[in-house]
């Protein structure tokens, strides 16, 4: 059976990841010219004949979030008007995912708005990775695949912690306990949780530890690290309870604001992240941050 004709494109958000995915698939990256007018408007010109072809746009909606999201929407529209057969949006990091419900009166559900924008622009399916909230899949009336970075992160943990005794997987909040339990099961570790209270956006205060971390090697698991406030509070909390060494893993290294400096100044031994979001020059220079690639997982999903 002949494989259908397909082409991979990318915007400006994460071109290194797109190149790695193409290398894994043995294909060259399709040409798309994504540029700005002097007032900041996005202009896209597809340099490939896409009529009747399956197209894949690799674009994390990472910072600057609104710019990268607009690039993605305009690329989708350009492909639709060029008569592409299928338009698959590969969004390794789905921006606005934290706004998945109303947290107070008169507040938006922005994750749903982004879903509507993608479908209205003409996307025929969406692939993302480690959504902040799994229910976002239900916001779409088109096929949606939520992939997991756990195979890459677990491989690293098994390799680098094979001699470690008494590993504890710690969730920084109640919502991540299921993730911590899944990791602990695969590395024969135990589970703990931090009871966290938020004082506002990007402001968290760790309260107490549920579980035993005394004298143990702790790995704090989260789906993303934004300003690293939660991560540093969690680190301080487990150190106070007697943890021997503290590591952290997260799929999405958003690392905005003072995040890198906080990690550098913290008692964390190492922070393991993936390349769903490109690292800044400051983050690349930080010897505590290790970046792994999820290109194999995304390439397999595309294939």
Verbal overview:
The protein has 303 residues and is an alpha/beta fold. Helix content is 31%, strand content 28%. The chain contains 9 helices and 14 strands. It has helices at 15-25, 65-81, 110-121, 150-160, 177-187, 229-240, 259-265, 281-284, 295-302; strands at residues 6-10, 32-36, 42-46, 54-58, 86-91, 125-129, 144-147, 167-171, 190-200, 203-210, 217-225, 245-253, 270-274, 289-292. A hairpin with a 5-residue loop joins strand 2 and strand 3 (42-46). Helix 1 packs across helix 9. The mean pLDDT is 93.
What secondary-structure arrangement, pairings included, does this model have?
Elements (H helix, E strand, L loop, with lengths): L5 E5 L4 H11 L6 E5 L5 E5 L7 E5 L6 H17 L4 E6 L18 H12 L3 E5 L14 E4 L2 H11 L6 E5 L5 H11 L2 E11 L2 E8 L6 E9 L3 H12 L4 E9 L5 H7 L4 E5 L6 H4 L4 E4 L2 H8 L1
Parallel strand pairs: 1-4, 4-5, 5-6, 6-7, 8-9, 8-11, 11-12, 12-13, 13-14
Antiparallel strand pairs: 2-3, 9-10
What percent of the residues sit in helical stretches (DSSP H or I)? 25-40%
Rounded to an integer in angstroms, the radius of gyration calculated over CA atoms is 20 Å
As residue ranges, the low-confidence spans are none
Spatial shape? globular
Strand content: 25-35%
Quick one: how many beta strands? 14
